[in-house]
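tool_call: predict_structure(chain=1)
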Amino acid sequence: MNKWIGSGRLTENPVIRYNNDKVSFVTFTVMCKRNKRIREGDQPVDFIDCICFGNIARLARDYLYKDKKVEIIGPLQSGHYTTKDGQKVYTKTVLVEELQFAETKAEEKERQESKNPAPPEPAPPDYDFMDIPDGVDQELPFR
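tool_result:
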């Protein structure tokens, strides 16, 4: 059985791509924390490349963005390609079959507000009257 299950946050906004047959698909990367800690406070993470087709691609395109927490289920596919320098690069990608949001709107709003606190209220304008010196009205071009 080949089924990968994981959750994490998107590292960037999803990207819409097209294959040779002009079929669109969406790609994104999810940062997943591992359960095991290395040292005090350190927790290793994995960056999982994901690809979506069809309705899931539309969902990803319309509702996912950087830092959105998601849960993903799908088979893990391996592949490879050769760079211009002749170096072989191996890839691992999850073909997303199920995609779910992993936080409520309230949790998401609270996280965004804690990350970007509201700017302070501007000071009210100073409406104090100033004293007009005597004789200024004689200098004005109109009366």
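agent: The domain at 4-118 is CATH 2.40.50.140 (OB fold (Dihydrolipoamide Acetyltransferase, E2P)). Proceeding to next step.
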